[in-house]
Every structure is written in structure tokens, then in C-alpha cells.
Design goal:
The complex is a heterodimer of chains A (215) and B (238).
Chain A: E1 5-7, E2 14-16, E3 25-27, E4 34-37, H1 43-62, E5 66-70, E6 73-77, H2 79-88, H3 92-122, H4 129-139, H5 145-160, E7 164-167, H6 169-186, H7 189-195
Antiparallel strand pairs in A: 1-2, 3-4, 5-6, 5-7
Chain B: H1 8-12, E1 22-24, E2 31-33, H2 35-38, H3 61-81, E3 85-89, E4 93-96, H4 98-107, H5 111-140, H6 147-160, H7 166-177, E5 179-180, E6 184-188, H8 190-208, H9 212-218, E7 236-237
Antiparallel strand pairs in B: 1-2, 3-4, 3-6, 5-6
Helix pairs in contact in B: 3-5, 3-8, 4-5, 5-6, 5-8
Classes of the chains: A alpha+beta (215), B alpha+beta (238).
Transmembrane segments (chain B): 66-85, 113-139, 160-180, 192-215
Keywords (chain B): Cell inner membrane, Cell membrane, Membrane, Transmembrane, Transmembrane helix
Subcellular location (chain B): Cell inner membrane
């Protein structure tokens, strides 16, 4: 086991780890894949960012996205409202898919990241750290707020032909959330494994410790 | 952020973790000794940092990729043949498939959106199916050539896959918004679930594919070549 080596996630080439300047990334010499990154943001800044994103997430989900007016009748919907409408008319699969990718996963993602950053900040050994981080890594590709944001834009263009469209609070909140999430998702989860080195509770060794294995 | 150097000189300096008897933890990326290969771990080696199961390569990568690809290809047919959206107004009921939805945008003066939706809903899933199958075939056949290009293809495919969900979200929003009883009601069609499933399945297929296999085949030691390897020290910064 050695922390001084990095294997490229896409081609398995071994590299020696070097400390990076803030805002730079290390790439594989063979295939060009990003090996690891260092953010401009320190851990405390990241924590602030995640807290903000959670608050904006709550706003985005509790207010209507748009208000639609046809011939004097108006109708507005929140994201939950859309999901429920899908569910009610018997499209359960689509409802679950939309709920999971735009509401559940992004919220769990932010919550997990928040918890991890708090654990690192507290600096005490945390049993949950490794499982939560592994879970977060598996979950990450399935949160699709930014795709949903583009979906809102497309739906609005489509509806503007047939009705009066009045943007709601949640529309702006989703826009802001997309930007915040772009920054948050660019934080390298791999760097959390190193940042949390001191709080990870390591499993008991089954075998006597060995020298680090340099080839 | 320039392209990767793939000159022979830079490639010959590369040692992979597998060649060095090491394995990168698939969860926390710690480079560990491959105890399963040493014969100590009885095949169930665990990462000393995160306790995750260690595999030098993704398990059953090719068969899983194929299974998911085939399932996605089958569902691709109902996804495009069945309507994703049904609009009922006072006078008529209209069913839209993905393609007719694109044509609607094209005809109502937003060709940019038509091109965007055509790309993410039709082109991307098709290209994903085609590319992943080609990659899987190339690995099965032990192709060595153009590993860098194949690796780049994989990276693009993995990156753009999620955007195919766009149409599902558009339908969901329309359903939630257009609910004027007796005037206009929009409902989701059976194609929407099939299409969502195609996107999820192709994403899973891309996740199950292990790009390291591309390079494993490309750099198998040939006969008569000295097996002396060195580490590529340092990393490029960009």
C-alpha cells in the first residue's frame, strides 16, 4: 500500500504523486485522463458552498418553476408536482426516474458531501467516512440537475408558443443551483480520500503489514 | 489541457499498476499490493484504507457491457416507435414520438433546439451503442492500434451520456404544467419510460466498461522485447 503512487483510472499507468498548485490538475502521461485535481477552494470554502447549495436546493423545490396561463386560466407546477402528475397518470417508471435524478440523488449527494466535509473539519476518527464517500462516488453520475435545467429551458420555449409563461422563483433558483453544482461537482472526490486520511477508520489488517510495494 | 502525448517514447516509459503487481482500489484509488495475486488474499483482498473489495479490473466488464448494450438496443425500438407525449385539446388528440417532437421544433422556428434535441435524444444514444460495441469488439479481438483514440472515444461517450435524459425531463415538465382540464392536457406516453430506460442502460453499460482493457491489449509485451520497465515519474500539470 502506498500513497505516493497514483494509477491512472483509465489506463492503469503508474505515476508518482506530486503536490499541485491550487486550480491545477494532473493528467496521465499516456492517455491524458485527469488523475487528480486541486481546487482553488479550501475545505471551509467548500463547506460554505455546499451549505449554500442545499439552501438553494430547498428553495428550488418548494416554489413553482413557471406559471402557465391559457385563456385566463393559470397553472403552475413545482418539480414535485410534475413527478406526482406523472405518477398519477400511471407513468410510475418515468416518475421515479425524474424524482431520483433531479431531486433525491442531488440532495443525497449534497448531504453526503456536507457530512464528509464536517467529519474532516472535526478531525476525529469517523466510522462513516469511508462508506459515505464510497456511496457518494457511486451516486455522483446519477444526479442530473444541469440536464434538468436545460430541460426547463426547452420546455419553456415549447410552451411559449401556446401559452403565456411567467417564470417562477424556482426557475432562478434552479439556474443558480446549476452554477453552484458545476463548481461543487468539479471538486475532486479523490482528493477527499487524502484530505480525510486522518479521520478514516482503517479496517483491521488481516495480514502483517508489509513494506510499501515500489516496483 | 493539451492532448495526451502518445509518442512511442512516452509510452515505453509507462508501467501499469498491474505490471508492477499493484492494484488501484476501485473505490478510494489507493494503490495497494495485489494480495490476491500474491496468493495471500484468497481472492478476496480488501483495500487497507476503505475496506473496499479490490479488483485489478472491473469484474466481468465485457459480458456486463454486452448485456446492458443489448438490453438498451432492444428498448431503443419502443423508445422511438411509441409516443413520448400525448397532447389532448378540445378538438384533437396528438401523439408525439421523439422524432415528431424534434420536427415540431424545426417547423415552429427553433431549429437550434431541434438540432440540440436530435443530438442528445437520437444521435447520442445511437453513437453510444455503436461506440461501446465497437470498443468491446476491438478488445475481444485484441486490437492494439490507436489505443489513444479509442480511449478518447470512451471518455466522450461517458461524458455526454447523461444529457440524453433531456427529453424525459422536458416531457415531465410539460405533463406537470399543461393540465387545463377540458382545454389542454399533456400526458406522458409509453415511449418515455422506454427512452429513460435506454439512457440508464447505456450509462450503466459505459460504467461497466473498463477503459484500462484498451491499454492492456495495446501494450501486451511482444515476443523478443525486453521486459525492462520503468515508472513514468511525475505527472503533467495543466
Amino acid at each position: 500500500m502506498t500513497d505516493s503512487l497514483v494509477a491512472c483510472p483509465e489506463c492503469d499507468a503508474l505515476h508518482e504523486r506530486r503536490e499541485l498548485a491550487p486550480g491545477t490538475k494532473a493528467r496521465c502521461v499516456r492517455c491524458g485522463a485527469v488523475l487528480y485535481r486541486r481546487s482553488y477552494l479550501e475545505l471551509d470554502h467548500q463547506l460554505a458552498l455546499v451549505t449554500t447549495a442545499i439552501l438553494i436546493y430547498l428553495i428550488a423545490n418548494s416554489f413553482p418553476i413557471v406559471d402557465l396561463e391559457i385563456q385566463g386560466r393559470s397553472n403552475s407546477t413545482t418539480l414535485v408536482g410534475s413527478v406526482l402528475a406523472l405518477w398519477r397518470e400511471g407513468r410510475e417508471i418515468v416518475a421515479v426516474l425524474v424524482f431520483a435524478t433531479t431531486q433525491l440523488f442531488p440532495l443525497v449527494d449534497l448531504g453526503a458531501l456536507f457530512a464528509l466535509l464536517l467529519m474532516i473539519r472535526r478531525g476525529r476518527p469517523a466510522l462513516a467516512f469511508a462508506p459515505v464517500l464510497r456511496f457518494l462516488q457511486a451516486l455522483r453520475p446519477w444526479g442530473m440537475i444541469e440536464v434538468f435545467m436545460l430541460g426547463i429551458v426547452v420546455a419553456l420555449v415549447k410552451l411559449s408558443n401556446m401559452a403565456e409563461v411567467v417564470p417562477g422563483i424556482a426557475l432562478w433558483a434552479f439556474g443558480l443551483l446549476t452554477i453552484l453544482l458545476a463548481v461543487i461537482l468539479s471538486l475532486d472526490l479523490r482528493s477527499l480520500w487524502r484530505a480525510g486520511e486522518s479521520v478514516i477508520v482503517r479496517p483491521r489488517r488481516r495480514f502483517p503489514p508489509r513494506q510499501s510495494a515500489h516496483p | 489541457m493539451s492532448a495526451a502525448p502518445t509518442t512511442p517514447s512516452s509510452e515505453s516509459r509507462v508501467t501499469t499498476a498491474a505490471q508492477a503487481g499493484l492494484v488501484a482500489c476501485p473505490h478510494c484509488h489507493l494503490v495497494c499490493r495485489d494480495t490476491a495475486r500474491d496468493g495471500h488474499g484468497k481472492g478476496r483482498a480488501r483495500c487497507p484504507r476503505c475496506a473496499g473489495r479490490l479488483h485489478p479490473r472491473k469484474v466481468d466488464s465485457l459480458s456486463r457491457t454486452w448485456a446492458l448494450l443489448i438490453a438498451a438496443a432492444i428498448l431503443y425500438i419502443p423508445a422511438n416507435a411509441f409516443p413520448v407525449m400525448q397532447t389532448s385539446t378540445l378538438l384533437s388528440t396528438q401523439s408525439d414520438t421523439i422524432l415528431s417532437g424534434i420536427l415540431y421544433f424545426w417547423n415552429t422556428g427553433s431549429p437550434e433546439l431541434a438540432v440540440l434535441i436530435f443530438t442528445v435524444s437520437i444521435l447520442v444514444p445511437l453513437l453510444k451503442l455503436a461506440t461501446l460495441s465497437t470498443l468491446a469488439v476491438s478488445i475481444k479481438r485484441g486490437a492494439r492500434a490507436r489505443a489513444d483514440q479509442r480511449a478518447r472515444l470512451y471518455r466522450i461517450i461517458e461524458f455526454v451520456g447523461r444529457w440524453s435524459m433531456l427529453d424525459v425531463f422536458v416531457v415531465a415538465l410539460m405533463v406537470g404544467l399543461v393540465h387545463f382540464q377540458g382545454l389542454a392536457v399533456i400526458q406522458a406516453g409509453p415511449g418515455a419510460a422506454a427512452f429513460g430506460a435506454v439512457v440508464v442502460l447505456t450509462m450503466l453499460a459505459a460504467h461497466s466498461f473498463d477503459p484500462r482493457m484498451i491499454w492492456d491489449r495495446a501494450h501486451r509485451p511482444r515476443r523478443g522485447r525486453p521486459s525492462k520497465k520503468r515508472l513514468a515519474f511525475g505527472t503533467r500539470h495543466g
